[in-house]
């Protein structure tokens, strides 16, 4: 995984949410949470696995909505942040955090109703093997996001010290076929890359987001989108 040592550092875990979801980054957090909720609902009694759960911002949210959820991550520092968040929200008895490798999931086949991963596949060295593991342990649904190759993300990507993996739609469809998954639905968003929003204040970010969303509703929205959300089913 790209940047694995950096990701597991204690100071990175402590500052992770403040750096990414403060200022204009709050709009990203809201949009991602809405995408996850829309895809996975209804959640009451649903058994869910989150891959690369990080600090538990999705894990705790889904537990509060009635999901029986496991959050798996490679970073113990990130998991500890998630446990603290779950305790603060009073949902720590509805979820479990585990340290583990997404390439070798410690669960039997068809163990979960749904498996999802956010902010994961852009760091994946072998996305096909990760997606196959997600499909293996899911009875039905897999949900994930990708950063898109032919978008403004490619410009921002050049500035990142460790880069990230970008995907074309053709590549995503090839990955789905290889994992035995069928596309149920997809959403495409953010003409402007995430990094731009994180650098500007809330009020300014909201103005740009209004324009960004308006473009997204036009025929140009899909080809220009920097992020895609994929809702798929086990064949």
TrEMBL record:
The organism's place on the tree of life at top rank: Archaea
InterPro entries, per database record: Methyltransf_11 (IPR013216), SAM-dependent_MTases_sf (IPR029063)
Xref: SUPFAM superfamilies: S-adenosyl-L-methionine-dependent methyltransferases
Alphabetical list of Pfam families matching this protein: Methyltransf_11 (PF08241)
Residues covered by the Methyltransferase type domain: 49-140
Keywords tagged on the record: Methyltransferase, Transferase
Any GO MF annotation of the entry: methyltransferase activity
GO aspect biological process, one term: methylation
Protein's UniProt keywords contain Transferase: yes
EC number(s) given by UniProt: 2.1.1.-
PANTHER family according to UniProt: METHYLTRANSFERASE, RHODANESE DOMAIN-CONTAINING PROTEIN
Record-given protein name: Class I SAM-dependent methyltransferase
UniProt organism field: Halosegnis marinus
